[in-house]
Amino acid sequence: MYRVSQLAAKFGLSRSTLLYYDQEGLLSPSGRSGAGYRLYSERDLERLAAIVSFRKAGLSIEETRVLLASGEGEQSVLRKRLAVIGDQIRALQAQQHLLARMLRVQSGGELPESVDKETWVEMLRAAGMDDEAMETWHAEFERRAPQAHHSFLLSLGIGEQEAQAIRAWSAAGGKEGAVREG
């Protein structure tokens, strides 16, 4: 059996974190010592290892609670978190490209040229994507992360008006009648 301070040290957590997990119903001690100290079993230790893994993966307390309650884990929670992380990565990449462009403009163009619209299309074609595949890509990007899609388009040097037209077309699923410019 482990006391709260021993368990906390084993996982590099604070004592207050374990008390918080107890308060939230994620990790309750298996028992108490004669002096009233919380005592944790090997099974509690395994549960804490799972909690720590879920939290490192960015899952919220509520998502962690759902996974622990399901026994084997609920794939929908994990898939949802994976999609959120993917969206965040794409948004950060778009921000990175935009900042690089801003720096290049401010420094008089001394930074190397970032990927522009034409280069991006050439790379997609070189990867084997035809027009239909690129249209599907835009539609999926718009569906999953509209703001990141917008930022990405701007990072390619596409103007605001054209970016809005591409997004409207993408949101319509590439259907006829929608404006298409890229």
Automatic annotation (TrEMBL):
Residues 1-70 form the HTH merR-type domain. It comes from the Bacteria. InterPro entries: MerR-type_HTH_dom (IPR000551), MerR_fam (IPR047057). PROSITE patterns: HTH_MERR_2. PANTHER family: HTH-TYPE TRANSCRIPTIONAL ACTIVATOR MTA, REDOX-CYCLING DRUG-SENSING TRANSCRIPTIONAL ACTIVATOR SOXR. This is MerR family transcriptional regulator. It comes from Geomonas subterranea.
